[in-house]
Amino acid sequence: MTLTLTRTHWVSIAAVVLALLFAGAATVASAGGDGHPGGHGDAAGASAAPAAGSADAGFARDMAVHHQQAVEMSFIVRDRTQDEEVRRLAYDIANTQANQRGMLLGWLDLWKLPKVESGTGPMAWMEQAHGEDGHGDGGHGGTSGNDTHGSGHGGQRTGAGAVMPGMATQAELDQLAKASGKQAEVLFLQLMTDHHKGGVAMAEGCADLCTVPQEKALAQGMVDAQQSEMDLMADLLEKRGAAPRS
């Protein structure tokens, strides 16, 4: 069913974003507790900090990188179109994901874990848990042969040169930066839909595999918010005579 972009719809999206941000602020405090990972009063209080190779740490590192690109694409399109609906959506995505990225990196600091783990490729935390390579024949960050949009982890689109599911390639980012008007709007909405699909798959992985309750809750919040935004983006694409790429 096609969504109608009414004030009520935008208020609903904004409510999800604000609730997630307020919840996120609380999770940083509770995850840190008295300055130690899993501080007093939370479910992880009796546990040591997650290991560097854990799903908790891997998700925090990978999603921080994933979110950074979403912020970048959102700022690009705000300079390439004057359409208020697309610009408002881009602002919401940039604001939300920049805040979430800060929380994820903050947790790594609290846990005294590196933000980059040497010798470990992207998505290793999901691959190890499921016993699969998750990136098709091209392995991490690419595809084989001339396939520029191979199968990523969980069947998500992974373009040649993209490091994680749903992420745009540098060529796609360059294309977005050169586009304008309706062309920029459509490309942004398509790229961000792919990006959200990959992000949802990663967040669902953390919701299943992570052990820190606050991080699991944040991951589930990401799933709910990004699925709602994908519905909105599908409607915006339809209004422009286009559709998601996959």
From TrEMBL:
It holds the Pfam family DUF305. Residues 1-31 form the signal peptide. Keywords: Signal. Residues 56-237 form the DUF305 domain. Transmembrane segments: none annotated. Residues 130-158 are annotated as: Disordered. The keyword Secreted does not apply. The keyword DNA-binding does not apply. InterPro entries: DUF305_CopM-like, Ferritin-like. This is DUF305 domain-containing protein. The lineage of its organism: Bacteria, Bacillati, Actinomycetota, Actinomycetes, Kitasatosporales.
